[in-house]
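Q: What would this chain look like folded?
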Amino acid sequence: MSMESAPEGEVSARADLVSALLWIAFGGAIAIGAWRMDRLEHLHINRYEAPGLVPGLLGGAVLLLGIMLAARSIRRGALGPAKPADRSGWAYTALVVAAMLAYSVVFVGHGLPFWLVTGVFVTAFIFFFDRRRQTALGRSTPRQFLLALACGVATSAVISLSFQEIFYVRLP
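A: My prediction, written as C-alpha cells:
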C-alpha cells in the first residue's frame, strides 16, 4: 500500500502503530501481573484453577494481537515520513471512552442486574457507534436496531453464563 493519506474512514498506519504499542504495553502488563500472582501452591490448588491463569491468557492474547497490529501498521508504512496530524477522531474516541467508563463505573454493581446493564450497553454501543457503516451497507434503522439488540442479548447471555457457570463468579 502506498504511503498516501488513508482514505476517509480508514485509520492511518501511524495511528494503528501507536494503538498497537499501547495494546502491547497493556497486554504485557496484564500477563506479567498474572504471572506474578500467588499460585496458591501451599493450598494445593490445581494449576488450572490458579488465580492468574485466565488473566494471563487474556493478557497474552492482547499482547499477541497488539504485535500483529504493529506488524500490519509497519507494512502499511507507519514508519515513513510523518503526515499532518488528523485530530478528527479524538472526539469520537473520547465519547467511546466516556461510554465505557459510564458502563463500568456508574452502572455495573449499582443495583441493576449485570445481565441487563450489559445487554443494554452492548446494544446501545453497537447501534450508535456502528450506524454509519450499517447505513452504508443499506440497512434500515429498524434492522440496525434488531442486529444491535441480537448482539447485545447474545453478548450478555454468553458473558453472564460463562462467569456464573464456568468460572463460578457471582455477578452483581
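The mean pLDDT is 87.
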